Amino acid sequence: MSIQTPPRLLELAGQSLLEKEAMVISALKELPVELFPPLFMEAFTRRRSETLKAMVQAWPFPRLPLGSLMKTPQLEILKTVLDGLDGLLSQNIHSRRWKLQVLDLRNVDQNFWSVWSGATVCSPKAMSRRKPVEDCPGRGRQQPLKVFIDLHLKERTLDEFFIFLFLWAKLRKGLLHICCKNLKIFAMSIKNIRKALKLVDLDCIQEVEVNYTWTLSTLARFAPYLGQMRNLHKFALSHIYVSPYISPEKKEEFVAQFTSKFLKLDHLQKLDMDSVPFLEGHLDQLL
Fold first, then answer.
1. What percentage of the chain has pLDDT greater than the value 70?
2. Domain at 143-286: CATH architecture
3. Predicted confidence band at 145 (pLDDT cuts at 50, 70, 90)?
4. In the chain, which end has fewer C-beta atoms inside a 10 angstrom radius, N or C?
5. Of 248 and 123, which is predicted with more confidence?
6. 140 neighbors 180 (Cβ within 8 angstroms)
């Protein structure tokens, strides 16, 4: 016979509050900081859109690690949270209670939620100041609000989650900044990759992994974007196919288009390459 662990007082308080959603929203200004994360998790689980929206606007921490709570992208949750952010961005003067500086959509820092849920033992006071607000290497560091994402291009077209996010950000240009530090390219056409990269501040990107078979001409078309990633620390490239029918002159042109971009990558620390036969006889151009 198993004995279930009784719910904690914070959990019971959160469940009770959510039974009266209007009361929760009106009481957020007076709500103790300790109640925000467990109440947010409860509202997230129950899909209480109005409560989530209001809690985003009153969030008492500088960072909201939403990505680690979602695990996988959830469009409806994203729309609700962005609606809440619109309420903040529409204010001409910062509210005193506007503490939120970073919306983190990456699946990182699961520890934040486990601590507040009681799964991990840690002082809430220590937790609130444990992780400083992450800086952005790009040009958007002066914006009052930053959105951190990892971009993994796997499909033939962009995921609707990211399409909605980018369109939302585009309409609010100058009010926020989207920062992508990690870019992974798997199965996607170069046409759609270029569309995606036009929506991202390339100065922010620090890690790029291309793990998909490209032709040398495709790599040359990607090269101009690579050259704009001035804060790139790590670049991994594999499986570049060189057609036996390509002329030596065209091959030289494509190789030069790619290798010349490395002159601009002042912060590059790690270079991983596998199955890149086009560099035979041209390694000096790269190095």
1. 78
2. Alpha-Beta Horseshoe (3.80)
3. confident
4. N
5. 248
6. no
Say if residue 184's pLDDT is above 60: yes
Whole-prediction pTM? 0.81
CA max distance for the chain:
77
Q: Where in the chain is the domain with CATH 3.80.10?
A: 143-286
**What amino acid is encoded at 221 in this protein?**
R
Structure-token match 């409560």, residue found: 51
8 A C-beta contact, residue 184 and residue 152: yes
- The CA distance from 266 to 50, in Å, is 46
Assigned token pair, 52: 């989530």
- Residue 149 and residue 180 in contact, taking contact as beta carbons nearer than 8 Å: yes
User: Where does the pLDDT of residue 1 fall: very low under 50, low under 70, confident under 90, or very high at 90 and above?
Assistant: very low
C-alpha to C-alpha distance for 22 and 99, rounded to whole angstroms: 23
Rounded to an integer, what distance in angstroms lies between the CA atom of residue 119 and that of residue 66? 18
Mean pLDDT over each residue of the chain, to the nearest integer: 83
pLDDT, average across residues 6-11: 55
H-helix segments, the chain: 9-18, 21-27, 36-46, 49-58, 66-70, 75-89, 111-117, 124-128, 160-170, 190-197, 216-227, 248-259, 283-286
3-state secondary structure of 114: helix
Q: What angle do CA 218, 219, 225 make, to 5 degrees?
A: 110
Are the CB atoms for 153 and 63 separated by under 8 Å?
no
